[in-house]
Amino acid sequence: MKTRVLIVDDELSMREFLSILLEREGYEVLTAADAATALSRLASNRIDLVISDVQMPGLSGLELLASIKQQTPDTAVLLVTAFSTAEQAVEAMKLGAYDYLAKPFKVEEIKVLVRNALERSELKRENRLLREQAAESEMFVGIVGRSPRMRELFGLLRKVMETASTVLITGESGTGKELAARAIHNGSNRKHKPFVAVNCGAIPENLIESELFGHVRGAFTGAVGEHPGFFEQANGGTLFLDEIGELPLAMQTRLLRVLQEREVRRVGGNCTKKVDVRVVAASNRDLAELVRGGDFREDLYYRINVFQVVMPPLRERIEDIPLLVEHLLRKHVAAGNGTISSEALKALMNYGFPGNVRELENIIERALVLNPERITVDTLPAVLRGGERRYESAGGVQIPDDGIELEAVLEHLEKQYLQQALAKAGGSKTRAAELLRMSFRSFRYKLSKYGLGPPDGAADAVRN
Ligand SMILES: Nc1ncnc2c1ncn2[C@@H]1O[C@H](COP(=O)(O)OP(=O)(O)OP(=O)(O)O)[C@@H](O)[C@H]1O
Ligand SMILES: [Mg+2]
């Protein structure tokens, strides 16, 4: 690629003189007789250096310089004038000119200046690229990470964004599946259209069909008006089907048809409507295993699994923990001056994080309640402090001499966990179920089993 120089001067003889000189030096030369033409040349060509006169009809060279620094800051600018004043020179340098040269100038002088200006702009461009790459490797559309696993993920997400394919995001709870789904939408050409997130596990089974595909008036008792389903609401945009493994088989069949035919029929209706929706599905259950067990349609599995994005668990990218902590501190400490002690960071890096980034975020938030500015070991949960592993009780279990009724003991324990999860999740059943790594459906079932609440979850089903 040849280096390209743009010469801006209202005087034809000057343009010709510089053109010949610079072409002989091996540069490709473009010319413009005024600033406006120069700007349009700059908009449609990559220009490495602009050599501009200062006094010109219309916009002056200084004004041209100012717009160039705004639009293409990497382009070097050299100003040339016949009426140079010290003030103008200072002004030009302040605006970011590479140099300011008085006419008449010597041929050697301009050659050297051009060479140096180009070297500098090349350096600047390289530095900027390096800076951008560095920033990107740590944070890609809101997803923090710089471990090899995360870099690989960013590369894959970038590819996925360019396509309209269905995507399946898998990974343990709290690994950022929803974050990735939103990133895919925001990085695609559908970003100005709706992103509709639906938790398939949270919609009561008898309402799933009408929620997804809509219903007409009077389709069933209670269907008082027309209702567009999530597919129609997401038209032109992205539909995020979270916990897709929770969809009942009959709904899987319906979904498959919609994906194949790209049209929906509202419940009770008899006409179909074309929809243009990109589906991103997510599951923290192993769908292939559900397929083997007959709980997930194989053909649907292949249909949604065009691209699979696997979110790595946090324990496989421990090196990202300091960066994540920094990010979460910025997120949760309003003044932006939150810190962490090195022992606390060490304790975090030694922990296994079964709940992944969500658990890390909860731990940070909790610690900040105890001390709003600094995270220290004593503000961390006991499991991290002692270094003991979770899921292993310290003393082991005790069976009294006359034995125990295991079933009842376990039920009692289970009930306590359910209640505590609900309290911790501020009453959100979806969140509570997540805390216990249970599907929404089984959580709801257990709640009603212990009389802890009526089965209902529609309010939790849709986010955004
Ligand atoms: N790489 C990351 N960088 C920054 N924040 C993250 C990252 N991964 C997850 N988070 C944060 O952790 C929380 C959980 O993420 P998210 O809801 O996307 O997880 P998930 O995989 O959908 O979990 P689940 O399977 O339980 O629904 C969110 O607050 C999210 O912003
Ligand atoms: Mg999720």
From TrEMBL:
Record's keyword annotation contains Metal-binding: no
Residues covered by the Sigma-54 factor interaction domain: 143-369
Entry annotated with the keyword Thylakoid: no
Domain Response regulatory: 4-118
Residue ranges that the Swiss-Prot or TrEMBL entry lists as coiled coil: none
Modification 4-aspartylphosphate occurs at: D53
PROSITE patterns per UniProt: RESPONSE_REGULATORY, SIGMA54_INTERACT_2, SIGMA54_INTERACT_3, SIGMA54_INTERACT_4
Keyword terms: ATP-binding, DNA-binding, Nucleotide-binding, Phosphoprotein, Transcription, Transcription regulation
InterPro entries per UniProt: AAA+_ATPase (IPR003593), AAA_lid_NorR (IPR058031), CheY-like_superfamily (IPR011006), Homeodomain-like_sf (IPR009057), HTH_Fis (IPR002197), P-loop_NTPase (IPR027417), Sig_transdc_resp-reg_receiver (IPR001789), Sigma_54_int (IPR002078)
Name of the molecule in the record: Regulatory protein AtoC
Originating species: Trichlorobacter ammonificans
Lineage: Bacteria, Pseudomonadati, Thermodesulfobacteriota, Desulfuromonadia, Geobacterales
Gene: atoC
